[in-house]
Each structure stands twice: as structure tokens, then as C-alpha cells.
Amino acid sequence: MLIEFKKQRNWIVFTILATIASLVSYSYYADEMLKHGGKGPTGSTGPGLAYGIVGFAMMIFCGLLGARRAVRIWRLGRAKDWLNAHVWLGLLAFPLILCHSGFLMGHELTFWLMVLFIIVELTGILGVVLQQYIPKIMLQMVKNESTFEQIPEVIQKLKIDAAVITACCCGNVGGKLNAAQQEEIEKKKAEKLKKDTEFKEKYAKMAPASADEEKAAIPLMNFFLDEVEPFLDPIYKSDSKLAELRKAAAVFNHVQTLLPQRLHLALTEIQGLCEERRQLQIQTRLHLYLHAWEYVHIPLSYLLLALSAFHVVIATFGYSGVLNK
Ligand code: HEM
């Protein structure tokens, strides 16, 4: 979900002021501790504990974003507001936890807590940055955006459409397709010719009317079987000549020179289908980039919360010496 930074003034001001307030109060309290001959600020002093409690409460709130998603039905406020609070309180929790730890990385359990916290913070920031840019890039690069879940179905349809066009121009699509695929194409072709008048007008007249015309369409059938059909597979063929816009244009131009004029429109339609397949691949890749960080951020954030709770229990019951020496 996109964070609209223009509408975040209050959150930005609050986070900056709260960070400054915690750093100023920390420096005062650290000075006082040192002045009075103490061992310096730690998590177990009064102010140290206060930073820890507030910081951990914010972390727990951040973790509740997942629970809120799971129970959308409860109407617990707008998703956007939850996300804004998640991001800004998640960021604010970091200086608070640093004040709690006395700006130290700790050792053993507390060291690993800090490492996890840093990773969760960095992946969260990465997520926000990706969510700002990737949808914009997608809009520029992909003309007909499909929902991610629909992509396999759309690819299947592209392949069938290309096969139907080829079958209309060439009589059939040859022996490389299995019987079930041939049957499917014949069925779709008959359906399209029956229902789609535009399609009927365009392609019925391209059907070969003589043995010579059938022969003239052979390069199209070969091109479909050798290049188009494999390229329109659900598993993307990135090494295909059709995978790159410029190379594909050159290949289509070449095939056009091998075909009679009456088949040029069909070839252009097939080129459009291949371009759509290429764009679906770009969309798939961008979708992956957009969500890959979540596979780190979400599980590690739950691990961080669980280990932090363990740390709280151990510190409360006075066993910190056992684990943290
Ligand atoms: C205190 C530590 C944090 C914890 C425990 C935490 C936890 C989580 C969890 C559990 C989710 C998944 C929610 C779901 O199931 O969909 C999530 C998503 C997310 N987090 Fe965090 N997070 C923390 C800090 C941050 C920070 C500092 C940022 C950014 C600066 C951030 C940005 C995000 C974003 C953008 C999402 C995805 C929201 C969406 O689906 O659009 N998180 N976080």
C-alpha cells in the first residue's frame, strides 16, 4: 500500500519531535548517571526501563498490523491509518530502544535482538521505498496491467488466441501440439467464428482458399510452432528471440517478408500477443520485487517480538545474568 508522504506532516513532525525529546532526555539522564558515579545508563534503571517499555509497546503495536489484517471484519480503523501508524511508530521505536540499551549492541540474546531489530527496520524502510516507486514504474512499463492472480490465466488465453489466429490462416497448427491442445484450438476457433463478428470478418477471409494459399501460409505456421508457441508458455523463455522488444520487432519484420499481404494483419495481432506476454513477465518480476522484502520483514519481526518478550520475562525475573552475563 502506498504511503502518501504529502499527507504525513503530522506524523513526520511527531516522530521528529519525539525522537529529539527522547535523545535530549537520554543525554540528561546519562550525564546524571555518570556524574553520580554510576556505571552509566542501562536498561534496568528507571528511565532505561521507561524507554524499553514505551519502545516495546510500539513494536507490539507494529506487530498488530498482521492481526488487524487477519480480522478486517472488526472495523478497527482504516488500513491506511494503521499503515501510517505502523511506519512512524516503528521508526520511533528504534531511537527509544537505543536509549533503553544505552546505545550499545548488547551481547548474546540482546545482541541478536538488536541485529533482528536493525534488519526489521531496514527491510521496513526498503518496503516503503519500493511501494513508492514500483507501482509507478509498473504503470509506465505495463500497458494492460492484470491482477497478479490472473496472470497464469491471461497467459493461457494469449497462447490460445495466437493458436486460433494461426489456425485460421493456415488451416491447422501442425503436429507439434498434442491432440488435446489441437481440439481446444478448434473449439475456440469455432466459438470465436460463431460469436465474434469482428474476428469473423478479419480472419475468415484469411483462411487459405487454395492449395497455393495454404502453402504460402507455411512460414507463419512454422514461426508459430518454433517461436511463438514456446514463448507464450507459462514458464517464461527469457532466451527467446521474442523476449526482447527490439529483437522481436526484427524477427516479426523478417517473417512479414516471407508472408503474403493477406497474412500481415494476423502477424501484427500475434506480435501484439507476444508483446503482452513480455509485459506480463515484467509485471511478474516487478510484483516479486515489490513483495520479496516482506519475506524477510514479516517473519523476522515476529521472531523479534517473541525474543523481545522472552528478554522481558528474563529481565523481570532477574535471570538476565544467566543468559546475558
Ligand atoms: C518495530 C518493528 C516492526 C515490527 C514488529 C513490524 C511488523 C510488521 C508485520 C508483522 C507486518 C506484516 C503485516 C501483514 O501481515 O500484512 C509488517 C508490514 C509492513 N511493515 Fe513493518 N514492522 C516493524 C517496523 C517497520 C518499519 C520501521 C517500517 C518502515 C519504516 C515498516 C514498514 C512496513 C510496511 C511498509 C509493511 C507492509 C504493509 C503493506 O502490506 O502494505 N515496518 N510489519
Unreliable stretches (pLDDT < 50, length at least 5) are 320-325
Distance between the termini: 43 Å
Heteromolecules bound: protoporphyrin IX containing FE
* Protein structure class: mainly alpha
Rg from alpha-carbon coordinates: 31 Å
Main sheet properties: none
Report the helical percentage: over 70%
What's the mean pLDDT score? 89
Strand elements, count: 0
Please provide a written account of the structure:
This protein is mainly alpha-helical and 325 residues long. The chain is 75% helix and 0% strand. The protein has two domains: 5-132 and 293-324, no CATH class; 148-289, no CATH class. It has helices at residues 9-35, 46-70, 79-101, 109-141, 151-170, 179-195, 197-204, 211-216, 218-231, 245-258, 264-292, 294-316, 320-324. Helix 1 runs parallel beside helix 3 and helix 5 (151-170) packs across helix 6. The longest helix is centred in the middle third of the chain and has 33 residues, at 109-141. The chain is rod-shaped, with a radius of gyration of 31 Å. Residues 320-325 have low confidence and may be disordered. Bound molecules: protoporphyrin IX containing FE. The site of protoporphyrin IX containing FE has 24 residues, from helix 2, helix 3, helix 4 and helix 12.
